[in-house]
C-alpha cells in the first residue's frame, strides 16, 4: 500500500495550538459530566433515569455490579479525543486497557449516537437511557467491561495486559490511523503490558499509523496501591523515557485545570506525531523516533462520594468498584446516591425528552469519525479476501507413498512468500513469531519482505528492514496481541511458534475465542480473518532441546472453546500442510491450530489426494492396509506426522510378520471430525464414524498429543471401549527422535505389540512376533546409548 500525502496527518496550524477556549472548556465539561452521570446510572439504576422524582429503592438494581473508580478518567479522555478528532479530522480509534471501564465507553457511545445505531431499541432519549441503565451487568444485558457488544471496541476488557500490543497491531500498515491506547496503572503491572511498551521499536512511521499511549494513574487497584502511581516522578519519567517515549504529564483534581492541561497535552502529542510522520514520509528520516505519550494522573473515583459512613472513598481503593453499597440496609445511602447523581446537574445536560443537549455535543465527531463507529473497530467492514495462490503449484511430487521426504514447513514457506508478494502494495498480511521464522523453515518469506525493525542495524544483521512485514520479538504476548489487533482491524496474518511455548498465550487465545463467539451472534459485527497458529518444532522433534521443550497440550485447551470457532489440523506430510494452509488462510472467524513438523517427513500423498483427504478430514488409506474386500481385524489410526510415520511402520511390520491379519489404516487430519456431528460442525455422524473405525474391532490410535484427548472426543461412540490411544505421556529428555516415541510407548514396535495384545487369538498365535518387537525396543535402547543416534533400520526405513 503506497503512502500518500493524504495519509499523513495535516500539519496543525496556530489555531490548533491555541489554549482551550472558555467555550471549548464548557463544552468538554458538560460532555464529561453527562458521561459520568450515565456511568453512575448504569451501575445503580433500573428506572427514573432523569431523577424526575425522588430516588427510591424501587429505582435501584438489587445487585450492584460494575467499576466506578476508573470510569471518570476514561470519560475525560473520551471527551478530549472527540475534540481532537473533530478539530483535526483524525482517523482515530481508542483502546480501553482498564478492564472494567465498560460504563464509560457505553455512556460515550450512547452520547455520540453510535450505540443507538447498532442497538436501535436503546434510543437517545429518556426511554433509551432507561434501557441503557437496565441492561448494564444485568441478566440478558451487557457485560460490565468493554466487550464485543461495545461499539468502537477491538479490545476485550475481561483480562488485563494487552492494550498496547492490540494498539500496535491495529496501527501496523494503517498509515492514516492514530490509536489512543489507555493503559491503566493496574494493567501496567502485568507482564504482557511491560513488553507491550516495546511495540514502538517495530512501528514504521512511513507505512504504519501511530500509537498514543495514555498512562492513566489513579493510584489504586481493587485493594492496593499501584506500583507506577507510587514511583517518584524522576523514576517514572526515566522508565518511560527508557521505553523510548517522550512523556507529557497532566495531573490534578480541579476539573478546569485538568481540562486545559489535557487539551494542551493532546495537541502537543498530535503535533509531534504529525512531525515524526512528515519527517519519515516526506524527508526520508530513518532514525527511530521518540514517540510522545501522556501520563494522566487523576483521583480514583473522581467526582464520586468523598466519604461514605465517615470513611474516605474518592482517591482511595474503596472507589474501585461500587462506592455506595448496601442501599437496602442503609436508606441514607439512597439519599447519597441521589445527591451524587444530581451533582452532575442532569437538567443542564438532557432536555425534557432525555436527549443530550446540543451544547454538550459540540466536539462530537460525525459519522465514521466517531470513536464508536470507526470502521477499523469493525474490521470485517474493511477486510479483503487474501490472494492465496493455488497450492498445487507448490506441491512436492509423490511418485509412490513414502519414497521421498520433505520438510513440510519449508514447502509452506514458498506459499507464504508469494502471499507476501501478492499483498506488497495493499500491505494487509503479516507473519508473527518469537524469533523463529527461519528456525521453523519459513525463511523463504525473506525473498518478499524483511523483518520489521526500527532500531539501529549492524553489518552482520540479516533480513532486517524498516518496512518489513515479518515481526519477530521474544514475547509471545506481543506476537499474539499484535496479530489480534491486526486481524480485528481488517487484515490477515499467521502466528508461527514452537509448540511447547504457545502455552504462554493460552489465556489470550481464550479471550479471542470468546470475542469471536460473541461477535458471531452480533449482526452488526462483520466476520474477520481467522487467527491462524502454526505450531512447529513440535513435541516429537524436540529431542535436541529436551524435556522443557516438549508439550503438545495447547490443542487440549483450544478444543474446549466454542465448536463454531475452533479447528485443529494435523497434516501428515508436506502436501497435506499445503492443503490445510489454503483452507485456514482464507477462513473467517476461526481459531485454526495447525501442528506440523519442520524436519524431513515422508511424502505420503500427492496434492490432489491431500486436498481430498482434507475434505474428508478422516480417510482410510486403502493402499496402506490389508483389509481390502474384507472386514478388518484391527484398525491402525494416526493423527499427526510422527504418529503417521509410526503407524505406517507398524502396518509395514504387520504385513511381514502377520500377513493374514486384515489391517485397516486410518489417518485423521481434521481432529474435530472425531466429535459427533451434533457437537461440532466438522463432526462425523455415528454411521460415518463406524464405517471408518468400526463399532466392534480394536482401534490402536497413535496421536500427536496427550492421549486422553482422543478419549474425550470419542467417548460417546459405540466402539469407544475398543479404542486404545498412544500419545505423549510426559516422558521426555534430550535423546534421539525415535527414542522419544519409545519413551512414550508410541513407537512402531509397541504398536505391533498392542495389536497382538488386543486382537482376539493373537496373544497365543503371535507370541513369537510380540517377543521380537519387545527385543527390538531393548536393542534400540542399547544402540542409542552406544552410538548416540537411532538404529539404521529406523533411520533409513521407508515404506514399501
TrEMBL record:
InterPro entries: Phosphoketolase, THDP-binding, Transketo_C/PFOR_II, Xul5P/Fru6P_PKetolase, Xul5P/Fru6P_PKetolase_C, Xul5P/Fru6P_PKetolase_CS, Xul5P/Fru6P_PKetolase_N, Xul5P/Fru6P_PKetolase_ThDP_BS. The keyword Coiled coil does not apply. Keywords: Lyase, Thiamine pyrophosphate. PROSITE patterns: PHOSPHOKETOLASE_1 (PS60002), PHOSPHOKETOLASE_2 (PS60003). GO terms for biological process: carbohydrate metabolic process. Residues 21-381 form the Xylulose 5-phosphate/Fructose 6-phosphate phosphoketolase N-terminal domain. SUPFAM superfamilies: Thiamin diphosphate-binding fold (THDP-binding) (SSF52518). It is an enzyme of class 4 (lyase). Its EC number is 4.1.2.-. Its cofactor is thiamine diphosphate. One of its GO terms (molecular function) is magnesium ion binding. Residues 598-799 form the Xylulose 5-phosphate/Fructose 6-phosphate phosphoketolase C-terminal domain. NCBIfam families: PRK05261.1-2 (NF003617), PRK05261.1-4 (NF003619), PRK05261.1-6 (NF003621). HAMAP family: Phosphoketolase. Belongs to the XFP family. This is Probable phosphoketolase. It comes from Streptantibioticus cattleyicolor (strain ATCC 35852 / DSM 46488 / JCM 4925 / NBRC 14057 / NRRL 8057) (Streptomyces cattleya).
